[in-house]
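Suppose a colleague, Dr. K., hands you the sequence of a protein chain of 447 amino acids and asks what its three-dimensional shape might be. Before reaching for any lab equipment, you can write down a predicted structure in token form. Begin with the sequence itself:
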Amino acid sequence: MARKYFGTDGIRGRANGLITPDLALRVGQATGLVFQRGDHRHRVVIGKDTRLSGYMIETALVAGFTSVGMDVLLLGPIPTPAVAMLTRSMRADLGVMISASHNLYDDNGIKLFAPDGYKLTEEDQAEIERLIDEDLSKRLAKPPALGRAKRIDGVHDRYIEFAKRTLPRNLSLEGLRIVIDCANGAAYSVAPSALWELGAEVFSLGVSPDGFNINKDCGSTSPAALAAKVREMRADIGIALDGDADRVVIVDERGHVVDGDQILALIAQSWLEDGRLSKPGIVATVMSNLGFERYLGSLGLKLIRTPVGDRYVLEQMREQGYNVGGEPSGHIILSDHTTTGDGFVAALQVLAVVKKHGRPVSEICHLYEPLPQVTKNVRYRNGNPQEDARVRTAITDGEQRLNGHGRLIVRASGTEPVIRVTAEGDDKTLVEDVVDGIVVALNEVAA
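The predicted structure, expressed as tokens, is then:
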């Protein structure tokens, strides 16, 4: 069901465009009312990344939550998975992360977590959206019941210890040279500190946020600088997080990028060997490479596919009892440890395998040859161009040409007005031709 405010990962948009102080205040009021369940004193934890607009949104959210009688605990810049973890750990009634993830600084967003640390249900989102657009003036707290707000210390240390405990007992990273790129984002303090405490020799990039440089030519969406630094320092591995640290990509010692599918394959194989997989399979999205699926099959593991979005991956994991899932973009969910994607915890699992086998990352993290995959984006103004007859005909033709030799996915982005056309198969020329045919049709409609 289409939402007015919520997309695939919370509420996201341009700062002072969609994401205004007024909207943030109303989100705080609406969400605070929905999650006041019981007679106890309710409280919410709020974290953020390093965007300049985070100050504006944080202040407005505080006003919204306190106006309906919720106490607010401000965490400051901290990874999204840390907010989810602390929501549970601190017995909060709600968790909020102010972030637009891998987007540049001029966007921002509001991610919401229920008391159990999981993202909100569709029903909760629908109720919040209904209240956002209502007049809530008569539901505000009476003066004696207004909420209080305070900043709390020590949350970075709590997350570092949590992340370290996901590793085998007494495992040390001593002897490893690691380059970590924190995208000038939320993990700029915790990730390098945790790696150093585990014994690694650490070289840091993207740890000087200024409010404007989050994800700018750095982080998981721009790993070129990391790859260059790995080669320069002759490091064993590079780790790139995104702005809120819920996704990761790895760079091997040669400077080659390892995507989320290869990371998932490595973790699946390692956990299978150790008897840690809850079921013989993992969950991923329709975007995961067919080569990845074939590799899992060779291990006797199934690949359960979902629509794009880590919330859909997690829903399937919970419903069907799988404990490993993720996306090619590097959203990795390990439900034995976390309730949402955690790029840093996923990176630690890779490091554990590297230490266990003592082989180069280029060998450890290259388990299969991915099939040629091509993705092209077509921007549009409004409507549903993918439903136009000309586009449907082009899609049908592409599916027929790839039948038995590949896959085709045409989908609207959940965060911007873009249609993403992806095809993969054994024949790269055919794959490119199929994508180009659909892109031509979409451009005709979107023009």
